[in-house]
Structures are given as C-alpha cells and as structure tokens.
Amino acid sequence: MALVTLNELLPVAREQGRAVGAFNIANYETAKAVIMAAEAEDSPVIIQIYQRLMDDPHIAALGVMMRKFAEDASVDVAVHLDHGASYEQVVKAIDCGFSSVMYDGSQLPFEENLAQTKKAAEYAHQHGVSIEGEIGHVPLNSTLGDAMIPLSTPEEAARFANETGVDALAVSIGTAHGYYSKTPVIDVALAGKIKAAVSVPLVLHGGSGTPHDTVKAVIKNGFAKVNVATEFQHAFETSVYEEMGKLNGKFVPLDKLMIVPTEVAVKHLCQLIKLFS
Ligand code: 13P
User: Fold this and answer.
1) Which atom of ligand 1 is nearest to the CA of 176?
2) Burial letters 134-158, b for 16+ CB under 10 A, else e
C-alpha cells in the first residue's frame, strides 16, 4: 500500500456507497493515531492539516513526517492540505510533498472562486496532485449564531466541477465546522440532487457531532470523503488532561504520557472509520 491521491480513493468509494475518513492532525501522536486506526480497520484514510499550519516555518518537516507515515502504512493514505487559503499555499503544500490539496475560495464571489480554483487545479494536476474545491461556504459553528447556513445548488455544483476540473467537491448541505449548539438540519435530499448533477466525489465538511444516521444517508448520496477534526482532537486532548491530572506534579517522559491519549484517539477514529465504510 502507498501514498496516493484522492483519485485512487474517492471515485471507487463513491461507486461503492462508502466514504473515506479525512482527519486533521496537528502533531506526531495524532498523525500516528490516524495511521494506526486505518491499519486496524484495514481501511484507506486521508491525513490532513489545517491551512494555518502552512504558515509554520517548520511545516516542511511535518510534511515529510506525514508522507513517511503514508509510504510505510499497510493501507492507502492520501496526505492532504485542508482549506488551502491561497494559490501560494497550494504551491507550498505541493513543494512539501503533499499528494493532495484543497483550494477553498468558497468565501469569494462564485466566478472568482471558479477562476482561482481552476488555476490551482491546473498547477496541482501538472504535479500529479489531486485537488478539492468548495462552493457554498461551510461555516464555523462558533461564528454562526442564528444565521441560516447558505446551501449549494446542484446547478452551481455541476458548473463549478466541470469548469474547474477539481477531483472532489465540498458543498454545503447544512453542516458546519466545530461542535453544534443545536441539532443541525442536514438536507439529505439536496445531497442526492447534487450527486445526480455532479460526477466527481462530494466532500462533507464539519463531520464532528453530525448525527450518525445522517452521515450514513449522506454517504449513500455521493459524499465519499468525510472530514472530522474537532471531536477526534477533543478525545485526544481530554485524555491528555486526564493523564496530566494523574501526575500530581511528578515527571513522566512525554512519550510515555502520550501513550494513553494516542490509544484513546485510535479507538475514536476506528469507530468513525467503521461508520463511514
Ligand atoms: P469538524 O471540526 O466539525 O469535524 O470539521 C472538520 C472539517 O470539516 C475540516 O475541514
């Protein structure tokens, strides 16, 4: 098995009515947990990072680590930039060895998003890298308040996918990033209509806290990549707090302190991978 792009993972998943989990890592332990969970479930996986990490002057080292994890895994793994914020970030991620990128122009006017995504897609494809685009911005829960989430339309999704040449498309059907303050209203019927209009695999952002039966229904409607960050990182963090609480001021080497939180994260991720497949 190997380092792959989204193209080796998502079209076949869409065809089979399943999805590949895409999990945001931030360090060695969370990256290792994603790989361990995927290997335990014998499932492909996507390991991805928040775009803000691209501004870290040592990001190239994280890229090498993620790539090495992917190359050595017993399952197929794509190394992906989540929500790339500019063309320059896309170029940088590709320079750092990512096999896949996202260019997120969803907050731009539609035509500008289309033009910028097309430019990023051309560059990615010249370098053998897959690319995800986004229309109909999936917002942050924390900034949402009582506002309605703007939903994507099948027509704009079809035009965007055809004209940009993206390999996967994130669309808005009612999810939001981060924990929900109230039960989200997810438009599964809209998911089906977008699937019928668009041949590329669809991407569900804001996986944390989205009801599991809804996630399953959405996967059956062409969503072949499901992003989860908050709930898996929170499971890891909660365990770190618990382990630190047990120390009572004593020193434990950091690698030993991280054993239990990593196991907790692996367990959580295994459940998600089972749900998506
Ligand atoms: P959550 O943090 O809500 O799981 O969203 C993750 C995501 O969509 C990353 O792009």
Assistant:
1) 3
2) bbbbbbebeebeeeebeebbbebbb
Regions of the chain short of the pLDDT cut 50: none
pLDDT in tens, 167-198: 999 999 998 899 988 888 899 999 999 999 99
Any atom of ligand 1 within 6 Å of the Cβ of 277: no
pLDDT at 1: 64
- The one-letter amino acid at 212: H
Whether ligand 1 lies within 6 angstroms of the CB of 206 is answered as yes
Q: What is the residue-averaged pLDDT of the chain?
A: 95
Q: Is 104 in the pocket of ligand 1 (CB under 6 A)?
A: no
What atom of ligand 1 comes closest to residue 232's alpha carbon?
A: 4
Across-strand partners of 177? 140
- How many angstroms separate the CA atoms of 174 and 64, rounded? 35
Q: Are strands 77-84 and 45-50 parallel, antiparallel or unpaired?
A: parallel
* HEC string for 105-161: CCCCCHHHHHHHHHHHHHHHHHCCCEEEEECCCCCEHHHCCCCCCCCCCHHHHHHHH
- The answer to whether the CB of 184 is under 6 A from ligand 1 is no
- Please pick, among 55, 56, 82, 213, the residue that the annotation labels catalytic: 82
Cα of 207 vs centre of ligand 1, distance in Å, is 6
Rounded to 5 degrees, what are φ and ψ at 71? -65, -35
Distance in Å from the first CA to the final CA of the chain: 18
pTM for the full predicted model: 0.96
Bridge partners, residue 158, by sequence: none
Instruction: Look up 56 and say whether it is catalytic.
Output: no
Return the number of other C-beta atoms located less than 10 Å from residue 40's C-beta.
14
